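User: Show me an example of a complex going from sequences to structure tokens.

Assistant: Sure. Here are the input components:
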Amino acid sequence: KAGVTQTPRYLIKTRGQQVTLSCSPISGHRSVSWYQQTPGQGLQFLFEYFSETQRNKGNFPGRFSGRQFSNSRSEMNVSTLELGDSALYLCASGPLAGLNNEQFFGPGTRLTVL
Amino acid sequence: AQTVTQSQPEMSVQEAETVTLSCTYDTSESNYYLFWYKQPPSRQMILVIRQEAYKQQNATENRFSVNFQKAAKSFSLKISDSQLGDTAMYFCAFYSNTGNQFYFGTGTSLTVIP
């Protein structure tokens, strides 16, 4: 089975712009979660989707949003980018709902905000 | 809010030796889940081991085992017969169904020395 794929792998944007990141889960997985990884804040949970519904959300401002499609693919959007949004954004998928189960991580999208 | 603390930013171990990574957490929940995830250099994060808090028996996966002390809120990872491929960043993580949040520690960078 192919693993979790994330596109693009690298992205450079400027402050004020918006960005959309994409995540394709492992075939058959219906749960997708997103994380932000930075040197200063470490790994932080953004949100989890299951069957097109957001189940959990971390403590991030409303500029961070996401959605999941009927084929389980997920997108994450960040509007009005700030320098502090520069990070590695990780997506993970799982066969079951709930973050208590094993999550399978993708390689991440490296976002740089200038 | 739950917190997860990894007090050892960096550790090293000789190949074939045993090493223990520490993790403590703070929660008022009684039912939760604890994880150790491994992030090798430039590779995807993978689950090493998972522990359900209501199970007293310590989880084991081949060379990896945990020492789960619920009263002390401690969840250490022991790696036996260390191999070069164990070189990675190790993250301790916490999840509870009540809070619906997923928390990572700051990570321990482990280097296995040949």
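The lines above are the inputs; the final block is the predicted structure for all two components together. DSSP finds no helices and eleven strands in chain A.
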